[in-house]
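pasting for ref
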Amino acid sequence: MKFSKDTRWHLSAQISAVLVITCILVALTGDHFVRRLESDYLLTKLSEKNQQTAQLIASTSILPILQSDFDELDAHLSAALSMDSTLLYGRVEDHESRIIGIAGEEQYDPHAPDYRLEISKMPDAMFQHLTQNIEHDGEHIATLHMGWNTNEVVQQVEHHVNKIRWILITPLILLALFYLLSLRIFILTPVRKINDKLDAMAAGKRTKDITQHPLISKEFSFLAYIVNRLQALQDEEAVTRRSLAQSIKKAEAANVTKNEFLGVVSHELRTPINGVLGSLELLLKDKNLSAEQLEQIQVAHSSTDSLLAIISNILDFSNIEAGKLELKQLDFNLGQLVDEVGSMLSGSAKNKGLTLTTNNAPELPDTLKGDPMRVRQVLSNLILNAIKFSDQGTITLETELLGIKDKVATIKVLVRDMGIGIASDVQKDLFSSFVQADTSSTRRHGGTGLGLSISQKLVQAMGGVIEVESELGRGSVFSFTLPLPIVDQEKTKTPTATKPQDLPQLSGKLLLAEDNPVNKMVAMKMLKSFGLEATHASNGKVACELYRENEFDVVLMDIQMPEMDGHEATVCIRQCEAEQKRKQTPVIALTANVLSEDRARCFSSGMNDFLSKPIRMTDLHETLKRWLEADKPDIK
C-alpha cells in the first residue's frame, strides 16, 4: 500500500480497504447467521426425536416397574442405547430417588465423587439431558433420566456452515474482484490521470492532454476537459509571462537608456547655462551699469531661468515617474519665500505689461518646516503659467492661514490671473502630463505641458492638494493647500535672503577642480567676488596632487573630468588625509549631473555637499559660508 508524502492514503487504497473490510464483515455476519439458524433447526429436531424416545421408553417401563422386574427394565434401557448411538445413558429412579434401572452408565459410578463431573465436562452444545415422569393411572411411580451426545449434530452444523461459507465467500470474492476491476477502469484510472496531470502542471511540466475511454462517465470526462483547459491556460500564461518578462527587460533597458540620455542632456545643457547664468549674475554685481543695460541683463537672466526651469521640469518628471522624488525637511519662512518668488518673476510679468503683486496673510507663522525648494518650484510654475496665459491685468499671489492643529499649520496659497481662462471640460485633464488648455494655446504660447502635472505630484507628495477654478475669458485661480509643521522661533532663526550684489565677504583658501574653461572662469570670478583665495586644477589628478602638497579650507569638485573624475579624486583626497593624518576637508560637488543616483554616488565617494549646475551665486555663497564657518567634523 502506497502513502503520499503527507501519510494520507490514495483513493485506490481507501476504496480497497473499505471493500475488504466490507467483505470480511459480510462473511462473518453470514457465517454467524447460518451457524445459528442451522444449529437451532437441527437441535430442535433432535429434541423432538429424543422427547419421543423418552416417552416411548417411559411407557414400556411401566410394567417392569409394577412387577419390580428391574432386569427387564435394564434390558429395555439397554435396547434403547443399542438402537440410538447418540444416547449416552438411561436411568430410572423411583419416587424416593433410588435407582431401579440403569443402562450406559456402567462406566460411571453413581457413588464416585466425579460421576457428575464427568458428564458436566461435556460442552453444553454437545450434550442434551431429558427427564420424563413415569405414571400409572395418574400416579407418579418413577422418573426416567436420559442423556444424548449432540456432537454429531454440531459436526453436521459445522459441515453445513462450511459449505454455505464457501457458497457465500466465492461469489463475494468474485463480486469484489469485478468491483475492483470496474473501480480501476472507471474511477481510479481517470482519477490517476487527472492527478498525474495536475502534479505535472504544479511542477511546471508540459504533458499530453488526457484522453478518456468512451465508457468513462460524463463527470470524469468533464473533469478531464477542465484539466486540459487549465493546461492550455497555463501554456498561454507561460507565453504571456515570457513576453511580459521580455517587455519588462526592454522597458528597464529603455528606462536605463532614458536616464542616461537625460543625464547626458542635463549635463550638456547645464554646463553652458552655468556659464551664461554665472556671467549674468556677475554682471548684476556691476554698479556701473546703465538702466537699459541692467534691464537687458535682467531679461537675459530671466530667460536663462526659464530655460533652466524647463530642464528641471523634465528631470523632475522623470524622477517622479520612477518614484525617486526626494523631499527635504528644512526650516523656512513662507511669507519671505512668496515675496522672493514674486520679486524674481515680477520682471517677466512687467515685460508682458502685467502687474505681479503678493499679499501674505499677517497671521502666517514665521518659521515652518518643509521643502522650500519644492514650494518655490510649484509657485514658480503657477506664476509662470499665469504670465504665459495672460495679456493684461494683474496677477496676485496670496497666502491664507486656514487653521492650526497640533502645531501644524494648514496654509493655502493662491495665484489669481486675468488671463484667457480654461474651459470646464478641459479642467479635469489639466494636471495630466503634456496637456495644455487647447491645441491653439499650445501653438500660441508654447511650453512642455509638464508644469501643472509636476506641481500636482509635488503638492501631493508634500501631503497637500492642488485645485483650479476658471472660466473662459475671465481668468483662473490656481491654489494649493499644504500642512506645514510650525517651528519654535526661539530654537530656529530663519536666514534672510540676499541678492547677488549684497553678498557679504568670506575668507578662506579653496581648491577648484574644473576642466571646462567657461565654468572655471565664472567660478573663479564668483569666488574672487566673495573675497576667497582660489587655486584651480584642470582635472582630478592635478587636484589630488595639489591637495597632497597644500592645505585648503574647502574643495569644489567637478565630476566629469579627464584623466581622473571627481569621484576618484575625492577618494584620493580621503586617502591622502588618512596617510597624513589630516582632518577631513569639506568636498563640495559642482556638477551638471543632477539625478538622484548622481547625488547618492557623490556622497558614497566621500563628498560632503552637492551643488547642481548652473550654480547661483547666492547658493554657492550660502554653502561656502556654512562649511567655512563649521568645525569641519569628520564624515560619519
